[in-house]
Write a structure and sequence with these properties.
The protein has helices at about 5-30, 55-65, 80-85, 90-95, 105-120, 160-235; strands spanning about 35-40, 45-50, 65-70, 75-80, 125-130, 135-145, 155-160. The chain has about 240 residues and is an alpha+beta fold. The longest helix has about 80 residues, at about 160-235.
Length: about 240
Amino acid sequence: MTKTQEQLIIENEELLSRLSEREEILDAMRNGEVDAIVISGEKGEQVYSLSSAETPYRTFVEEMHEGAVTFNKEGLILYCNNRFAELVNQPVDHVIGSSFKKYIIPIDRLNLDNLLAQLTPNKNGTLIIYLNNSIWLKLSIRLLPAYLQGDNYILIATDITELKKKEIELLELHRQLKQQLVQLQDLRFDIINSKIETDVVNKKLEIIIEKLVKENSKLKLNGAELKLKLKKRSVNV
């Protein structure tokens, strides 16, 4: 059936109108004026988001000052943000796919294993670890629910190196003060012992002096008696 010129003009106007609407929609999408679009189909109207629901959260994680890591039960890093890559001095693409444990000292690897074994989806855990590059991190770890990418862990890592340095300095100062206190106590005991010894010596000296005074008195008395006897003898002669 051949369409009349009038019908063609109407269809053309309808097409132009639809095209104009599509262009307006595209302009709105480009300018960020809409967050989603509704499309009618065989299953009815459906809403399509123009950006993933996780986009704002991912942006936040990427820009946060703490390190963020997702890893599986084998310790394989599935995701990390730029901050964590900075903390371990590695590019992001080198960190993702590597083992989380390779960045920490051996004793803290055991501590991490013990903590992970105790975690449940409703129980968070915290742990302070020491990296191989001499950075202290405080980890806040959570086991993700099974419906979120399986049994994986997510952690937030906070750099507490400066705090640990201050803590170590305070502990060293406390150790030195305690050592000085022990030395002062030892000195006090020495002084007390010296005083006791001095008192004993002084007491002995007093006894000796007292004896010497008595002996001297006896000698004087004997001398006087001897002089008297000699004088009597001289008179008799």
